[in-house]
Design brief:
The chain is mainly alpha-helical. The protein is globular, with a radius of gyration of 18 Å. It comes from Daphoenositta chrysoptera. This is ANKY2 protein.
């Protein structure tokens, strides 16, 4: 009901309280599908971007034969904030990294992007495959890896990355670097059979930079 009435705040509160996103109603539709049907796309975005903190906290504990956790506890909060953001603009993502001193270090970003890759794999291999979340995790991982490159190689570090993303070409102001980064991240998505990937490629391929 919050989703089909367009109430983003209550939708988010219910998700945080443990509401399941894949439960269906009497006509076999999820809350996100019902919200989409009545045009409440903001609520669909909230549901599709939701990622329970417990699923991330799993990586903060050693698993199996691991002596160390894959993700230090101190990074879980900042990483979760980025995972659940609904603004996917690369500059916004880099600014979220930059504003947190714990994240804006090479070693921290390396750990984070490896965890994002693991979550991406899990989203594709679980019984109820979630291609949207998998693509988002992969996209964030690609941006984190680019952040690492700039932190290692450029004196202006993440400021340099942001400038590159915002800089438009002389003749029309088109942000070429940003476009290439997004296309590259889509091209590197490891699950070629994904319907979402094929849709993205079909819509992007005919457009010339």
């Amino acid at each position: 009901f919050p989703a089909i009435s367009g109430n983003k705040e209550i939708t988010w509160m219910m998700l945080e309280a443990g509401a399941e996103t894949d439960v269906v109603n009497s006509v076999g539709r999820t809350a996100a599908q019902m919200a989409a049907f009545v045009g409440q796309h903001d609520c669909v975005t909230v549901i599709n971007n939701f990622f329970p903190r417990e699923r991330l906290d799993y990586y903060t504990k050693p698993q199996g034969l691991d002596k160390e956790p894959k993700l230090p506890v101190k990074l879980a909060g900042p990483l979760h904030k980025i995972i659940t953001t609904t603004n996917m603009h690369p500059v916004k993502i880099v600014l979220l990294v930059k504003e947190n001193p714990l994240l804006a270090e090479v070693e921290a970003l390396q750990k984070c992007y490896r965890v994002l890759d693991l979550i991406c794999e899990k989203c594709m291999k679980q019984k109820d495959m979630n291609e949207v979340l998998a693509m988002k995790m992969h996209y964030l991982s690609c941006i984190f890896q680019k952040c690492i490159t700039f932190l290692k190689e450029r004196e202006d570090k993440l400021d340099g990355f942001i400038k590159s993303l915002l800089k438009g070409r002389d003749k029309d102001g088109f942000p070429v670097y940003q476009e290439k980064l997004i296309r590259e991240s889509i091209r590197k998505f490891p699950y070629c059979e994904a319907t979402l990937l094929q849709q993205l490629v079909r819509s992007i391929a005919p457009v010339e930079i």
